[in-house]
Amino acid sequence: FAPPLPKLRFAVPLRWQINDHTLGVTMRYVGCYNDDSESTIERRGLFGNYDTSKVTKETYGRAVLAVAEGEVIPAWTVFDANYGFSFGDENWKTKLAVGVINLLDADPSAVESPLGYEVGIHDPRGRVVYVRATGEF
């Protein structure tokens, strides 16, 4: 009933600024976790230490899923990078930035789901390049 919760998930951003230039790199990490969803348990037969020979239609449900270990989903690490340049005066400030999300194009960890990845944890888009312009006046 709940989405998977990795024990460890963090981001480490590093930013350098020299005059009007900004350079940034971020490492995003999602630790490994068990995919103990009902569909994974049933498809793969991952019942842990539960004696499935005693399973009946009435006892299957929560009893089996409560002890099922599920499939181990490996850790996922992604690096992002960006560069920005600021210019203008006190009345009009502008910043132009270009960046890359998932610089190394790391595929998300595969899971047993209709989409093949965990929606709340992984980003399936792969490498994404962007340009951003912001202004203050």
Give a brief outline of the structure.
By secondary structure, the protein is mainly beta.
Radius of gyration: 22 Å
N- to C-terminal distance: 48 Å
> Major sheet, described briefly?
5 strands, antiparallel
As a percent range, the share of helical residues equals: 10-25%
Structural class: mainly beta
Strand content: 35-45%
Total beta-strand segments = 7
What ranges have pLDDT less than 50 throughout 5 or more consecutive residues?
Answer: none
Commentary on this structure:
- This protein is mainly β and 137 residues long.
- The chain is built from two helices and seven strands.
- The chain has helices spanning 38-44, 61-67, and strands at 9-18, 21-30, 33-35, 71-73, 76-88, 93-101, 128-136.
- It has a five-stranded antiparallel beta sheet, with no helix packed on it. A two-stranded antiparallel ribbon has the order 3-4.
- The mean pLDDT is 82.
Summarize the topology.
Elements: E1 9-18, E2 21-30, E3 33-35, H1 38-44, H2 61-67, E4 71-73, E5 76-88, E6 93-101, E7 128-136
Antiparallel strand pairs: 1-2, 2-5, 3-4, 5-6, 6-7
